[in-house]
Amino acid sequence: MRLSGVKRILLVVGIVILVLGGISFQGVQAQASTGEEDGSYRAFWVQAFELGLKSPQQIDQLVADVKAANMNAIIAQVVRRHDAYYVSEYLPFTQDPSVVPGFDPLGYLLEKAHQEGIEVHAWVVLGPMWHSIYGGAPQDPNHIYNVYGPHASDEETWITKGYDGSIGNVMQPYVDFGHPEVVEHFVHIVQDLLTHYQVDGIHLDYVRYPENPGGQPFGWYGYNPTALQRFQEETGRLDRPHPSDQEWLEWKVQQVDAAVKRIYLEATAINIDTVVSAAVLSWGFADPRTNDWWNLDPVQRAHQNWKKWVQEGYLDYTFVMNYDNDADPARANRYNAWIEWQKDLPRNRGMVIGPALYMNTIPNSISQINRALAPSQAGQHVEGISPYVYNVWSNDNSPRAHLLQSLVESTEWNGGSPPFSTEMNVPTHSWKEASNGHLLGRLVNKNGEPLTGVPITLSRGNNGPTIIGAFETDSNGYFGVTDLLPGQYFITIAGGPLNKQLLQVKPREVTKADVILP
């Protein structure tokens, strides 16, 4: 339900605010770190399409390998395609035949990794609904593919569609970030995980729209019927926008932004220490140092504006998928350009470089890791390295032992320069230890129905400055602001009378509030 379009003037007489209380979150860091003195992530991505997480023996070996390599974190794929590699009250347990019957991969991994002082981050795939590797539809009738997938009606489906109404690969359709129920589904996954498992972090993946098919323009997807209707209502338009339409592009980018911020605040409200991160794109051959960010492939092709996420505190870390083959000079140059830009990017959150082991020989992978660890010409560093992927560690069938050995000691494969020769603590997350607070509100009518796309203004103190003007409620009526100084804030509806209502932001908490319009 909507109160009005984005471009329309709102006139609201009364506002009743019920402050439901805050739980937990923290502050902000002014700029990137300049070295490893405060710790640095050394993480392995471990995906669930290969062996590594599917039995006690595999996990014992994984933990031993991570420990021997002087690494400190495991990014474990425990939600592969909206199925759980853990005991979930929300998602169906995976039908992966390689998982030992009755075995809880995440529970066992947490026990073994924490014994060795290794962090475990639960890797959750969001965008793709299912995967053709399974050879058919999910066995569980309640899986979202069976309920909201290709056979659902236009009114019920969660699938994002192309400009021509197509859904792409029928066995791997994507959900649409513009559908309100999809975002709620994401939140439920994270809440279920954090309620039942003591994970150190939540790691989001495929936080984006699918890439355009060959021969079709960027922005091809996003035409879920419910999402398109929302766009039309919020803009006052009646047409089906072309993929190149800039207002349509901006709207889709906003849907991804809003989902990331909502997940971040909901997760942090449950556990103050949870690290929320995302795997993000470095697509395209345009040099990010000399081109406008908005025009680069991550935004234009996948609508993933992750630069904003690390600059405005939408999550704690971005793990950039810097996937390039060093044997190809053009790809090696691309890798160097991106990691240099990443090191120097002004940001309030952490940045982790993710080189692709599976695309390289072990010597080339070690070289990429060492280049990632080196300071930029301006003397800046990132906050960690996360090679992809533990299960596929080279492109030439070299033994994994050669990689692990080369990370910690001089070998013929690293030219005498092991990148992880000593142990390293994880970063300190200084913004999470500061005294700032956060706000997660929801605008609803007296019947409890969400009011979406409504501009809201937040100001500090009764006569204080505007903090954010005309930021809008999302598809479920939520609005969020991160990194606020503690104190009194007043919220008003844009275009309405100066009927300010008080919210109290507390240090290191997420203040939750319902804003009810009679």
Task: Please give a structural write-up.
This protein is an alpha/beta fold and 518 residues long. The chain has 12 helices and 16 strands. It has helices at 56-68, 105-115, 144-148, 180-196, 225-235, 246-270, 297-302, 306-311, 329-344, 362-373, 400-408, 430-433; strands at residues 16-22, 41-46, 73-79, 119-125, 201-205, 275-280, 317-322, 350-355, 384-385, 437-445, 455-460, 466-472, 478-484, 487-493, 501-505, 510-517. An 8-stranded parallel beta sheet has the order 8-7-6-5-4-3-2-9. A hairpin with a 5-residue loop joins strand 11 and strand 12. The protein starts with 15 loop residues before the first strand and ends with a strand. The relative contact order is 0.17. Residues 1-34 have low confidence and may be disordered.
